[in-house]
Design a protein that fits this description.
Blueprint (H helix, E strand, L loop, with lengths): L3 H20 L3 E6 L10 H7 L3 H4 L10 H5 L2 H12 L2 E8 L5 E12 L5 E10 L1 H51 L6 H28 L8 E3 L1 H15 L4 E7 L6 E3 L1 H17 L5 E10 L8 E8 L6 H4 L19 H11 L3 E7 L3 E9 L22 E5 L3 H13 L3 E5 L2 H10 L4 E5 L7 H11 L5 E5 L3 H6 L5 E4 L4 H13 L12
Length: about 525
Amino acid sequence: MMTEQSRFDAHLAERRFQTLINSVTEYAIYMLDTGGYVRNWNAGAEAIKGYSEQEIVGQHFSRFYTPEDRDRGVPAIALATALSEGKYESEAWRLRKDGTRFWAHVVLDPIFDEQGNHVGFAKITRDITEKRLAQEQLDQTREALFQAQKLQALGELTGGIAHDFNNLITVIRGSAELLQNPRLDPAKAKRYVDSIVAASDRAAELTSHLLAFGRRQSLSPETVDLNIRLDAFVEMLSRTLGDTIEVRLRSEGGLWTVRVDDTQLETALLNAAINARDAMPDGGTITIESTNIPASDGEPDLVCIALSDTGPGIPDDVLKRVFEPFFTTKPVGKGTGLGLSQIHGFAAQSGGRAEIESKQGEGTTVRLLLPRATGEARHVERPVSSVPHGRNLTVLVVDDNEAVLQFAVDLLESLGYMARTAESGDDALDILRSAHVDIVFSDVLMPGITGIELARRVEQDWPGLPLVLTSGYSEELVRDLDLRWELVPKPYTAESLSGAFERALSDTSSEVLRTDPG
């Protein structure tokens, strides 16, 4: 039973607490009854919201909310959430007495008496408008900096592309003009043709690196056994990097398989090895380590391939830019700056990631982290024709680029095929309905019906008809091809085209190799 003294002490404690609350001016602290009506009001609430205690006590707290929040029932949701979950907290716009808005951080707690009965709510509101504006300004500054960095990177990228491709175009155009001389010596003519082929191959290589960085490279993934692959790669490196570079392999054995493009994996590792060699002009050691990393922290099982050197290391300001295309610290003519960007793009497109770590004076480590494959690695020998022969079969060539279309026709005719042409998917379907066709060869990205859509129509309406696709841009291809059709990446050669056609024809029953009208 409460005595007179205990009642006095409780009253005194309540007054002291109220005095403390009233002295707080940076926070609006007040109580609501169970229905949400204001029961008391502190000086901070008056300073922030603009209402005096006489004006606001007895009013419903929903008047502090914006009309749109009231229409959405936010005040009632706040009370219900606080009661059911023990607390309600949010940031949102609130209204002052004069109608202006401020950005508020709000905490709402339910209050219970000694018997556990719900008697109301305690509400604390803080005006954090300045903090929000400061954060918005910081975000805008960061975005402006990001855009400036993007423009700088774009400038370096376009400058690098222009420089390298202008050099290649100079070789190709100059050689082509010299070949127009009717009295040209045959030996010189062959040299000029070889120059054109070499420049074209170099242009294709540059394009491949750019696509790798942009994660749009045409990949042919297969399940690879790294236990075997890395042994062969290290042996190749030991022969090609020179006598001053020692190559070591440290593998824990029993590596999981990975599903990647085997050629691009080798290219990525070779790019890392060449960078390491160039960082050690007086010689040094390259160590390739591989290990399984079990799934953790939301990541799947990974296989890590780390390539380390004993070079001088990379400064921090350079390290953060090494994956940018065309960024290089090498002298002019000694590197394109595309090697590490290819590694970055290949890893990302393969579902993994690339990392780099470096300490000045201690060397650099490049890591490829690739997802573990499901299934066994297997190698299937597929027929490839070393001496192409078209056997007078009719090919329907589909491409919206007239120059590429004509080149494909000339190349196929040189291989012994006969060709029909279509500049769109719709035209191709019309020809298939009305003419004899033994095999379809189509570009992937075209206006209207794409090559992928055309392939599906062919599969549906002419089941068993061989089909080969080609593309120099593979984002859609990687997503949708699903390895059902042969793919020849652009730029293609007579050998690559012939091999793809031979495989497509050999994979298809001889009973359904053609379409015939009617």
